[in-house]
Amino acid sequence: MIISQTPTYNIKVVLNQTGIAADTLRAWERRYGLPVPQRTSGGHRLYSDRDIATIKWLLAKQEEGLSISRAVDLWNETIASGTDPLADSQPKNNIPVDNLNIEALRREWLTACFNYNTVAAEQILNQAFAAHSIEIACTEIIMRGLYEVGEYWHKGSASVQQEHFASGLATRRLEALISATPSPTRNETIVLACPPNEWHAFPLLLTNLLLRRRGWNVVYLGANVPTARIDETVKTTKPKLVVLSAQTLVNAVHLREMARTLNKKGIQSAFGGRVFNDINGLEKRIPAHFLGNSIGSAVPAIENLIVNSVPMVKEETAKNGTLLLADEFHQHRTQIETTLSHIIASQGQSIDFLDTANQFLGDSLIATLKLGDINFLSTDMQWLSNLLITQNVSTAILPIYLEMYAVSVKGVMNEDGNEISDWLTLESQKFA
Prior knowledge:
The chain is of the alpha/beta class. The protein has helices spanning about 10-20, 20-30, 50-65, 70-80, 100-115, 120-130, 135-155, 160-180, 200-215, 230-235, 250-265, 275-280, 295-305, 320-345, 355-370, 375-390, 395-415, 420-430; strands at about 40, 45, 190-195, 215-220, 240-245, 270, 290. Helix 3 (about 50-65) packs across helix 4 and helix 8 (about 160-180) runs parallel beside helix 9.
């Protein structure tokens, strides 16, 4: 395992992770040249994971009875001999080199999951954790593996049962790792929660593990947390930060409401999730700190928010007309869907899974309008195409369905629905 040398953490994070005093750290840098942090354009120190590991190594040598000057000499002698002083802190490779390849391990794990082979899947994960750090094994094999399972499902190459099997194995492994983490060494509390109706909690569960391994006190609430109930938790736990996660446009609206509730109480919140990674600009509609596009970037971002005084984020407001259109569409939705059914019947068409398609499209239209931009939904429209694929329905029906929906909106809402009907027509042309 290679320890990252990317300058990421400010001095407050380093002090929290190592327990060293700020004056001592500066003295080491000045007198002995260890560690060697990078500097921002403003002159502030930025430390890497390797810098932090170096500090811990020096502290460990002091605990063994060496003076700091002798510990530094030993470090320099080891470097001069061509050996990395931190090599002993890295995992030993006890399995054949061919099996250490992360992509190969991930493929083998997915194959075992698709075959419902619990024993093989668990053995492959054991190999992964023996060869790589917990962070690498969890993010590059388990989490990315689950992402690929989802992609296979969207393409019709994997079943719901296979996805559930893989998710179950992954969740049990993470829960076992979490139960084995030591007691927190930091006083601040972090609350992790998914907003109402968000059931995909695995990314948040992994964040829970990674934060606990760094010594943070984490209160993990998991999936489908009612906004009204978050009050009870924050009153009791008094968190420094609440981290939220959502995967769909509809749940992004619920996440926004939860962030607004927390803001009113003066509690900082942060967020992430697939939908914010996929849709450009969506994160600006949430009054909270966006944690970036990966778990790897999210954890240091969370730590930075806790150790630094950061102002609360203001959301980018939507046009009032768009919000009114969301309400009007909601009021006419049932009538629009009834009209759609009549149009389909009158043209002798038959669209399988019409109710499912209507539910997805109607819910998503309301959500994207509430978030202030109907074009946010364009990225998520592929979901509807994937739905048809998984149900063995020809995607050739999709442009027909969207055009008929556009006609229904126009017929019920007249000119008031132009923005929606025009967008639906454009989308139908894309799929055609």
